[in-house]
Every structure is written in structure tokens, then in C-alpha cells.
Amino acid sequence: MAEELKKEYAEILKGYLQSRDENALYKVSILSRKFQEARIDPDRILEMHLEVFNDIVNGLPPKKAVNAYNAGFEVLLELMMGYAIAYREYVEMHKNLYDMAREFSEKLQEANRLQELFISIISHDLKNPLTSVLGYSELIEARAEDEQIREFARKIKRAAKKMSELISDARMYSKLRQGVPQEEFKEKDVKEILSEVIEDFKEKASKKGMEIHMKNGNAAYKVLATDFLKSVFSNVIDNAIKYGPPDSKVMVEIKDEGAFWKIGVRDFGEGIPDNVKEAIFERFVRNDKRGIKGSGLGLAIAKTAIEMHGGRIWVEDADGGGSIFYMTIPKLQHSATDQKDSEPANAS
Amino acid sequence: MKLMGDEKVVQVKSEYDIVVARSVVRAIAKDMGFGLVDQTRIATAVSELARNIVMHAGEGVILVREILKGETWGIEILAIDNGPGISDIKLALSDGYSTKGSLGVGLGGAKRLMDEFEMESAPGQGTTIRVRKWLPK
């Protein structure tokens, strides 16, 4: 680009030195914009002018060379004048874009703030009446003599429970989005958290004839984590039970991956199509809605939470069918009792 | 303000006329004693005014004249057209504004190069732009 412009400039300069034609100056003024668009620096333009000019006047008799020198200066002036204006315009345009972006960002922040506020209001104000709905539907289920009415009560109860979970998810997501204070990060053992979660889900799994297995070494799997980490594991294991076929297994594994612990949760379900492997971690995307309970926020919460811990979450196809959800979490390199001041999350 | 001497009028219809306008204005500015840098400023501004006429109005005129205010000499250039006019003058003068993209430096550039800039325009009424540059003493 610079070479082409230099050539074009040389042609015009040569023409002007011969004809002193205003048209040449006009062309230079138009050309100056291209120099600016090509981001050629002003000092380079001056250099280029001298290179081109010297090539042209080399060998001219002294008097002609002096005249040419003045004429060449006029052309250079025209070029730099146009360049300066194009540059100023460029700067102003970017300033305008910057202002627009800043304004947009402020509006966005305000919208986010309102959204968080909204979520926190609905989560508090909806939970209380729901407790009544749940309580009375249970009461009806227990006392009604008509089986059909008892069935209606059960349906009401199920719907109310689902709604309650949804509200809890929304509240958790909102809390995560606002950021979690540093003091909530504590030294924990991944294996212990996983064992607790597996214990919590044992009953649910066995109702489908399923078992949860964990494979790990004897090491201490120390990390710095908040209580959200348990929610992440719960969510992923809950999903594995939901999507796994009856009488299948859920396999949990912890691996040493250098600076990270890598946790894999494998199910034997239908697997997740490639085109939604990333989208399932966004809000309100679910692979298959039929018969599967959940708010659609679960994996979005897991992703936000795991990233807050400095790790990642993703899903791969497992050999022999099903999916493996992987999560990484930075290892806690120094025990907190050894070096209390050390930077915690920065494990790498 | 006195009008000194004749005024030169250039009909502007094509790119060729832009060059003529530049040429006429530059010659007058040079005769008046404007330095090379100011000559270039004025020529670039006229270039822009004339380009604006060709691109937005199709045709118009550029008027050039010498003026005297007190003891200060100046050059005044009017760019007049009967084109569609400009509804938002402030926007047209903002840097980076160009309705047809290929516009050279924009009217904002012309304004900055000169000492005075006035513009009258309304949709359907055409546009008149007056610029002045005073000769340094």
C-alpha cells in the first residue's frame, strides 16, 4: 500500500514540476487522505517526499533544481495539509465512537443493575407466597378424600417446587454476577466436596437404579473455593442423573493437570450435539426440554461460578456414548497456614 | 466592510471546475500576499466547498473577492448552490461527517482552515457558505 501510494505521489510530483498545474495539487490533496487511511506516519511521508523528489531532480542543472525545490515544497505542503485534516477528522470520529461506546456501556450497566435489583426483589417476594402454596397443596394432598383432587394437589405442589428452584437459581445467578467477596474463598478439598455431593444424590440416583462412582488418588485436592463450587458439582451430577438412562452409571474422576485439578463427570445418556456444546452454558438454553426438569440456568450458573474460581467448564463426547462434563480449578499451591499473605487464586 | 476590486466567479459543475476554482482562488491569495501555507489552506478549503457543491447539489458557483475591514485585508469566498440543502448544519460541520462517503475533508475541515465560516441552508432552499481569511499584518 505504501509503495503504491509512493508511486502515485511520484507521478503527481513529476507532473507538477513540469507543468505547475493546479490539477496536480488537487490530486495530491485527494491523495493525502489515502496516506492517512494507510496509517503512514508523517515523518515517513516527509522521507518519502525527499526520496521521490531527489530521484526526479538528480542531474538537473542548478537553477532548474532550485525552482523544482520550491515547486516540490508546494506539493508537499498540499499533501501535509490534507493529511492533517484527514487525521483530525479521524481522531474526532474515534472520539465520537468512544463517547458512544461509553454512553452505551453506562446504559448497559444501569440495565444490569436494574436486572439484579429485579431478580433480588422477585426472589424475596415470590418465595414467601410459594411457601404457602407448597404447604397448602401438601395439606390438600394429605386430607382430600377424592383421589382426583389429591392428584391436582400433587400437580400444584410439583409446579410450585419447580418455581421455587427457578427462583433459587435466579437468585444464585444474580449473586454470582454481582461478584463474590474475597473472604468467601476458603481452603477446601475437591474430593471432600464431591463426596458430599455424591452422598446427597445417592437416593435420587438409586430411584432410577443408577449408581455414582468416584475415582481418585489419595492426594489432598486443595483449592480455594466458595460454597458455589458445591453447587457447580451438584448441578453437573444432577444433570448426569437426569439425562442418564435408568440403571446406568455416573462416573466421577479427579485428575492432576499441572496447575489445575480436572474433574470429569461422565454419563451414559444420548450425548450433546456438537452445535449446542457451547450454547448449553448460556442462560435458558437446554438441549431437550421434554420431560427434563430444571430452570435452564443451572449450567450458566456453573460456568459463571467455575470461571469465578479461575477454572473452566466444557463438555465432550465420551468414548462409547454419553457425555463427559469437565471442570478445572486451580490448585492451591501453598497451604494457607504456611503463607497467609500469598496470592491465592494465582496458581499458574 | 468594503468590497475591493472585482469579484471572480467560477461556475462549478464538474471535478475540472474544482481545479479551476482552486486555481483562481490561489492566484488571488498569492497576489494579496498570503504566504504559501495560507495559500494552501485557502485552496484546500475552496477545494472542499467546490467538492461539496459537485457532490451534493450537482452545480453552483464559487465567488471570490478581496475585502477590507478597518485596515485588514482579507479574502472572502462564497459557495452558492440550489441543491437539496442541509437540514442539520451542526452535523454537517462535525468532523467525520460526510453523507456520500468519498467527500474529501468535510465542511468541518474547511471551517478549521479559515478564520470565519458562515453557513445558511435549509432543505430545498440550497446552501450558501461564506468563508473568510484575514491577511496577517
What's the topology here?
The complex is a heterodimer of chains A (348) and B (137).
Chain A: H1 2-19, H2 22-37, H3 42-57, H4 62-143, H5 147-178, E1 186-189, H6 190-207, E2 211-215, E3 222-225, H7 228-243, E4 249-257, E5 260-266, H8 298-308, E6 313-317, E7 323-330
Parallel strand pairs in A: 2-4
Antiparallel strand pairs in A: 1-3, 4-5, 5-7, 6-7
Helix pairs in contact in A: 1-2, 1-3, 2-4, 3-4, 4-5, 5-8, 6-7, 7-8
Chain B: E1 2-12, H1 15-32, H2 36-57, E2 60-69, E3 72-81, H3 89-93, H4 106-113, E4 116-121, E5 127-134
Antiparallel strand pairs in B: 1-2, 2-3, 3-5, 4-5
Helix pairs in contact in B: 1-2, 2-4
What report would you give on this structure?
The complex is a heterodimer of chains A (about 350) and B (about 140). With about 350 residues, chain A is of the alpha+beta class. Chain A folds into 2 domains: about 1-180, no CATH class; about 185-330, Heat Shock Protein 90 (2-Layer Sandwich). Chain A is built from 8 helices and 7 strands, in the order H-H-H-H-H-E-H-E-E-H-E-E-H-E-E. In chain A, a hairpin with a 5-residue loop joins strand 6 and strand 7. The relative contact order of chain A is 0.07. Chain B has about 140 residues and is of the alpha+beta class. Chain B has a single domain (about 1-135), classed as Histidine kinase-like ATPase, C-terminal domain (Heat Shock Protein 90), CATH 3.30.565.10. Helices cover about 40% and strands about 35% of the residues of chain B. Chain B contains 4 helices and 5 strands; from the N terminus they run E-H-H-E-E-H-H-E-E. Chain B is globular, with a radius of gyration of 14 Å. The interface of A and B includes residues 25 and 85 of A.
